Amino acid sequence: MALRCIVSVLRFGTPRVAPLSTAPVAREQSAAGEQSAAGREATPGCRAAEGARPPLPVVDFGNTQEAYRSRRSWELARSLLVLRLCASPALLAHHEQLLHLTRRLLGQRLFDKLMKMTFYGQFVAGEDQESIRPLIQHNRAFGVGSILDYGVEEDLSPQEAEHKEMESCTSAVEREGSGTSKREKQYQAHRAFGDRRDGVISARTYFYANEAKCDSHMETFLRCIEASGRASDDGFSAIKLTALGRPQFLLQFSDVLTKWRRFFHQMAAEQGKAGLAATDMKLEVAVLQESVAKMGIASRTEIESWFTAETLGVSGTLDLLDWSSLIDSRTELSKHLVVPNMQTGQLEPLLSQFTEEEELQMTRMLQRMDILAKKATEVGVRLMVDAEQTYFQPAISRLTLEMQRKFNIEKPLIFNTYQCYLKDAYDNVTLDVELARREGWCFGAKLVRGAYMAQERARAAEIGYEDPINPTYEATHAMYHRCLNYVLEELKHNAKAKVMVASHNEDTVRFTLRRMEELGLHPADRQVYFGQLLGMCDQISFPLGELSLPGEQGWGKSRTGTHCFCLCVQVRRAFPCTSMYPMAL
């Protein structure tokens, strides 16, 4: 099996005493200077300030001799060749055709040898757990660890991918034509975007075939988790939820969550609260009850039972986190799962009708997630749930959050992924941090810029909904740093919170190191991790590796005999790191 290694460097951070309820606005303003610790009380998960520590060592990313001293001369020559080829727009535009042509000309055996000497050897750690061990041990000696990741794409034609997507994203009721989909356009399957690989430069894609295939993916993820546990005391492994179940469920659940949140914002506008930060938007419960009753969603008695002191406290106000929690308590009351359509004035159901088989498929998906999380807990591996397209992401984030509630009790074992090229990234981060504080579980996050920009923009323009992506590269860069700064502030206050800074951008790495210095965070506390793809940015990974103890290790698997398709993923991943377009970094 072909194994792809994603490099993860070090554990950074330091815990300090601070209240977990610090307001986001105040936290953001504190980025320019030190916050006073006077008057703060120690909270669970924090520890008292320690004695003076040595400053963070200076990292020189321009010192190529140090950055590449772990590499042999022939490896440097291979890197130069491969990365220059990957920087060619003409080659990247036709890389799949060229790979197939080369394989036909050379034959499978010579093709495999050529690929292992070039692209495959640059970006893939090995074919099985034994073959990757030398590379893992070599990198670990230089302070660089790894993340185990499953790196295969199924060999499907665009037509086959489109057919599978349309079948798996449409309910039985919709296929039979006996009902019109109540989902918004963004959360419906569209044939023009059926092949989710199109326009995606740095992420693998899964298409639903059947439940047996999902079980097979789960078994592969389990092997990855076990291997990561054997290689390191606290390693990482990554999963994608679209590999574990029918995507129809993710679409429908995302639609529910989006409508429910939008309803809250509509009520906030009625109360004159529009424009406030997500964590600061609080509605008067009495006024909200009156509005909901007038809409005919439920009787006043039923509505009052939703808003109790047990669920909302005694403040008389309700925020977005309180509102979102109502879905949990109301999911069994299906007759009430409706929201008003402000355009038509009609009440519309949040959930479409599931067949018995669809309900079983949904249950199996949740069971697979639970099995993976339990295995990760058993072997001490952190499980990172990858972010995906925005029409799946609300459901993915919510399901990941449920896993965090269950498994992140003593330490963050489940990491959610936040795509900072999204306009609502900061709201998502701040709300989840606040929820972790309220409920007492450990926050764990991976921050990325995002992998689906071109596809997301094309889909929004074609189908007709608001582009979810920040308008410019500069806006995405600022959003990433804003989210990162907020999380670093939380790490200062909370010893149990952790973050993975997944970026190939030197400015972002420098920003992180500078803020760590200003906040008093230190590598020895292992709260901050840096992650880059294997073979992409050694000039960042290895200088960071000199700062502290060895980091995590892991490998990405693909099936035997799929070198060409694994390479297609790796070449696409290389493109944003070596081309003139930095927007996806």
Automatic annotation (TrEMBL):
Domain of life: Eukaryota
EC number: 1.5.5.2
Cofactor field: FAD
Protein name listed in UniProt: Proline dehydrogenase
EC category: oxidoreductase
Assigned keywords, A-Z: FAD, Flavoprotein, Oxidoreductase, Proline metabolism
SUPFAM superfamilies for this protein: FAD-linked oxidoreductase
Pathway: Amino-acid degradation; L-proline degradation into L-glutamate; L-glutamate from L-proline: step 1/2
